């Protein structure tokens, strides 16, 4: 025991000797509740790239990733409690539920741990939230649709995973957009779970009962499936909003080359995990003025720039963006001004 | 046991052999819990403290209660595949009605226990396989939970939060709660005469019927007890998480079955052990989460490692019960 103490004191001396930043001795954990789709894989990849470099550069001492085996809330709550016991200084979290983890998050805050949530955010006031404006994204989908289909018409909506805050926000944005553009009418709504296969099945099931559809508004990860369903049913191809997935953008490119097909694509960049990491680092660095709610833009592609992005995306992957420490500082600054 | 010399045991005395195996079986849950605790102590010494046990084990209380709930059904030779979503449903009721309109909340929760009792009657009278009925019910509970709470939210009643964050001196609350649950259920099911009848209804139904006991009544009681402990589990869970989510309990179905089996229960024959079930639930809760987190496994392997730990723990149990035969 004594030997261990001496050793650790020695290690601490060494660490402080080579320190470049005030956070060089800090450990940041990443609590993740799910890893089973392309978006989450891209999220973990981006996180690994950025944090590996941060650890090598001695910006932080450790940045470990913990993924729960199931998507359940109690499992992740237990995981957060274990991270408290492990003595991490900050926890970056993609939460299974916005509210149901609050008990564990509060315990973490009480133990002096900085908690930064993103994507699946937590509502506990002591935590930080890196939020993408999903509602605006939903609204923008209808705005863009109005450009491609100026005459208006019937829309089909594809919803995401039921009961999640993200699905709720995008849906609310779409409704707001339709209210602002009365020429559009949502005539059908299906649940696609952000998954091409699920979306394809759901759209194929509802298509026969629908009138002519001019556009599909969705949540990303479901656009290609919808396109397949329309093609299989022999229905005319509507304007389908895309969600930055590789298969979606590839299909868009094929259609564009064929007849100049036009649409728009938007989604949250999986690399937002890295932004959350830098925000945690900034708070650990002693910044007191970081707002608890940070609004960051979503990643969108238009007719002109999507083809340039396509080759950079892994087969079956999703377009991402890795954030830097400067990006985080800029985002914090932008949010303080508001 | 101690009176028998080791050399005289094998083959020559089958009864002594069986007794030893039974003894091993009842000790195994405690042994596996001790093993997991030792591993945790080795990996992260600071977890073995009042604060540490509080954090590591408080989410084990609802699992232990759900496991006890499942144990009652298993005691009657049935299986409940709806306990997880039922816990989620109770959670949603607890975080909404029980706080805002306590009378309605209590009525709904009592009513749901009544539904469980009716299910028991239905399964017995129509001779339906419980797996099918409860699988169907799992969708009903899930649907009701989403109706009550379409998006995550709600808040636990203050008295419940106070109970679940209770900090008794010296012994962490989760351990105290586990002891209490195990003691009460052990007394009720293993030490009272009606408890014997309840277990007997799963072990030898024909004999009980001939002796004049109503099997309909035993089944109703077993299912109602499952409902009761399911309600307690849901409330305890919300007391810890402070807020609900319609999907919050989904993982409990399989955890509770694994807990019963790990704790020395059998799928058939009314063989269950309340103390074992509680220990089994604690072991599962510890093995699945704290142990895994402390082991620092690369993220790609964490999900698989979780499964591997469960299989190892359950396999040890199976090896021992095989020796018994």
Describe the structure.
The complex is a heterodimer of chains A (338) and B (325). With 338 residues, chain A is of the alpha/beta class. Chain A has helices spanning 2-17, 38-56, 73-86, 102-110, 134-148, 165-180, 196-206, 223-233, 246-259, 272-284, 306-309, 325-337, and strands at residues 27-32, 62-67, 90-94, 114-118, 128-132, 153-159, 184-191, 215-217, 239-240, 265-267, 293-296, 299-301. Chain A folds into 2 domains: 17-126 and 269-299 and 319-337, 3-Layer(aba) Sandwich (Rossmann fold), CATH 3.40.50.2300; 134-267, 3-Layer(aba) Sandwich (Rossmann fold). In chain A, the strands form 3 sheets. In chain A, strands 2-1-3-4-5-11 form a 6-stranded parallel beta sheet, sandwiched between helices. The longest helix of chain A is centred in the first third of the chain and has 19 residues, at 38-56. The relative contact order of chain A is 0.13. By secondary structure, chain B is mainly alpha-helical. Chain B has one domain: ABC transporter involved in vitamin B12 uptake, BtuC, CATH 1.10.3470. Chain B has 16 helices and no strands. Chain B has helices at residues 14-43, 50-57, 60-75, 83-95, 97-100, 102-125, 130-148, 158-164, 173-191, 193-203, 205-210, 215-241, 252-262, 274-288, 290-295, 299-324. In chain B, helix 1 packs parallel to helix 14. Chain B starts with 13 loop residues before the first helix and ends with a helix. Mean pLDDT of chain B is 87; it is low at 1-12. Chain A binds chain B through residues 32, 35, 44, 64-75, 77-79, 81-87, 96-104, 106-107, 162-165, 168, and chain B through 44, 46-47, 51-52, 55-56, 58-59, 62-63, 146, 150-154, 237, 240-252, 285, 288-290, 293-294, 296, 299, 302-303, 306-307.
